Amino acid sequence: MKVLEERIRQEGLILSETVLKVDSFLNHQVDTALTLAIGKEFAAVFGDRQITKVLTVEASGIQFAMAAGIALGVPFIYAKKKKAITLSEAVYSAPVHSFTRQEDYQISISQKYLGPDDTVLIVDDFLATGAALVGLCDIVAESGAQLAGVGCVIEKSFQEGRGLLEQRGIPVYSLARIASMSPGEIHFIDNEGLLKECAGC
Amino acid sequence: MKVLEERIRQEGLILSETVLKVDSFLNHQVDTALTLAIGKEFAAVFGDRQITKVLTVEASGIQFAMAAGIALGVPFIYAKKKKAITLSEAVYSAPVHSFTRQEDYQISISQKYLGPDDTVLIVDDFLATGAALVGLCDIVAESGAQLAGVGCVIEKSFQEGRGLLEQRGIPVYSLARIASMSPGEIHFIDNEGLLKECAGC
Lengths: 201, 201
Prior knowledge:
Chains A, B: This is Xanthine phosphoribosyltransferase. Chains A, B: 5-phospho-alpha-D-ribose 1-diphosphate binds at residues 128-132. The structure is a homodimer of 201-residue chains. Chain A is α/β, with parallel strands linked by helices. Chain A has helices at residues 2-11, 32-46, 62-72, 131-143, 161-167, 194-199, and strands spanning 13-14, 20-21, 29-30, 53-57, 76-79, 91-98, 103-110, 119-127, 146-156, 172-182, 185-189. Chain A contains six helices and eleven strands. In chain A, the strands form three sheets. The first copy, chain A, has a six-stranded mixed beta sheet, with helices on both faces. In chain A, strands 1-2 form a two-stranded antiparallel sheet. In chain A, strands 6-7 form a two-stranded antiparallel ribbon. The first copy, chain A, is globular and about 50 Å long. The two termini of chain A are 21 Å apart. The A-B interface holds A 15, 19, 21, 23-25, 28-33, 35-36, 53, 58-60, 62-63, 65-67, 69-70, 73-78, 80, 84-88, 100-101, 109-110, 112-113 and B 15, 19, 21, 23-25, 28-33, 35-36, 53, 58-60, 62-63, 65-67, 69-70, 73-78, 80, 84-88, 100-102, 109-110, 112-113.
């Protein structure tokens, strides 16, 4: 998605070879028009798969799940990171290790909102180590729902996340794929043809 | 907002006189069409105030801030609940006590994204004790931005939140105001005329 790559070049702050800040337009301050366009792109890629629900994890996936849900005309669900007192019923859950925050947590969703009749698109802001996304895929498998694929806004292709998902046979589509980066320099992988590749999974 | 009140009557689970679950359509599984309509309603109420940014707090305010941002044509910002390693620069912050989770936390936003040139609409899913909203108002005051008002999806009018905000002279508009509730029973306050009252603040 060229407009996204350009925005990352203009506003992204590369703090190290692994840390990219995009909080001026994606995950702290959020450009609503760009986010809606991101949702449309996900719908263009996965829209022929009869998706019934979009799934993400709080907090920074929510705006993209919302945008994808708007474009696909379906509800979205966000997994919670810890059990609140109002989430008392049966849940699907999976353990996740956050490398950004250096902590372990559980993600969970109510069993009421996902089941064998659903076809799910998982979306998130970043695909890096894949930890949270693998947890979401485990939750979808546990629920008996079909997994249509995983859509990510930005992929750090030099980290292991894509490999972990592809090993499981999961279609993965990222709108901006970073081959490598260092302060002042960023290289994207050309996405052309990936949609077809993804569709063939 | 009648359609919202009806949905709360149909799907809301009243667990006690203070705890209402709306996680089938608002804050776990999210009805995207209803959420967009909620954003339009906030824009109808506050749209004449030259708002430049919508502000909320992660996680369950994000979809409503997104919807309000879409309707107003402006970006939104979500305050973070703890400092991530990628949020290293100067922040505005405020302490908050969560009665739902029984814990204290800091909310913070980067100083880069709010300043004296901004006019801010704060939105959130619930107005109850008002703790998080007062924290957000403090952050807006600290930034030097103008506060256009606070918009909430559901207000528990029997709790102190509205009073705390009105004491500060802040216009408050909630789309569904609950006068009282108990399992199997819920009473709403008629919202008619409140917009005018709010506009006069």
